[in-house]
Amino acid sequence: MYSRFLVSALFAGATAGLIAGILQLIFVQPVLLHAELYESGQLVHFGAEAVTAHPDLPGFDVMRDGLSLIFTMLTYTGYALIMIALMGIAEDRGAVIDGRTGLIWGVAGFVVFHLAPGVSLAPEVPGVAAADVTARQIWWFATVGAAAVALWLVAFGTTWMVWGVAAVLLAAPHLIGAPEPDVLVGPVPTEIGALFAARAFGVGLAAWVLLGSFAGYFWQREGVADTSTASA
């Protein structure tokens, strides 16, 4: 059982993390590097002259980008450990877990870790105004926890009361409100900030759907292998 759990999580997390890291390097990192030019003052928005929207950006950096890929693989392996543990509990309750149903688990993971907190605390590029980091972390973890419990209740609850509790948990963090900066002084153009948020959500959704599908596939495959070994 433990071998099934670990093997499934390692394969699913490392594979999904590698693809997610590559997608981030292609779609998200250029936006980050562009924003850093404004953060460092190399480009100035609303200056005396118009500023090009297509500046020269650094190419592939082996150290920085290689470490980014490794960190992303480790991060998604951590996510996979959580997801497969929950898949095992759901399977014991009669749920079918495979690569196809894993797609739904992936969408749920995206909602919990990206969309739910991102509705009020949007992904931020370097150089934008932001509230105290500790306050944002506390709000982020609370929102992720509330969203995780809410989606579990939606998926496995059987009464309107349970689903009502789920709706309250999803809405409460946003009714309370995320920490916000006192003043808006960021030097980065809004177009770059909007593009970064869109790219972050798009890559996040793709990565989580892949993670869910891989997790479901490996969990089913390892389960079949365990059954064959036990009956041999």
TrEMBL record:
Transmembrane regions: 67-90, 102-122, 137-155, 160-176, 196-219
Keywords attached to this entry: Membrane, Transmembrane, Transmembrane helix
Pfam families (UniProt xref): CbtA
Stored NCBIfam families: CbtA
UniProt-recorded name of the protein: Cobalt transporter subunit CbtA
Organism of origin: Sulfitobacter noctilucicola
